[in-house]
Write a structure and sequence with these properties.
With 65 residues, the protein is mostly helical. It has one domain. Helix content is 63%, strand content 0%. It is built from two helices and no strands. α1 packs antiparallel against α2. It starts with 8 loop residues before the first helix and ends in a 9-residue tail after the last helix.
Amino acid sequence: MTRPVRLDPEAIRFGKVRGLLECLVDAVRQPEGTPAREEYIEFLLRKTDVVLAEIDGVRAGSIAA
């Protein structure tokens, strides 16, 4: 019989942040003229704001500003 695995919620949140930051670094490394580069970077910053707010338990200050 398999037993359900409980994942640590903190590990899940930090995994989300790490994944978002890896995507952000990759987006920043793209050439300036790449289509949708700026929009993608802004999207990732907004998504990171949401995850950081989730970690803090309160609305975090925007890092996209």
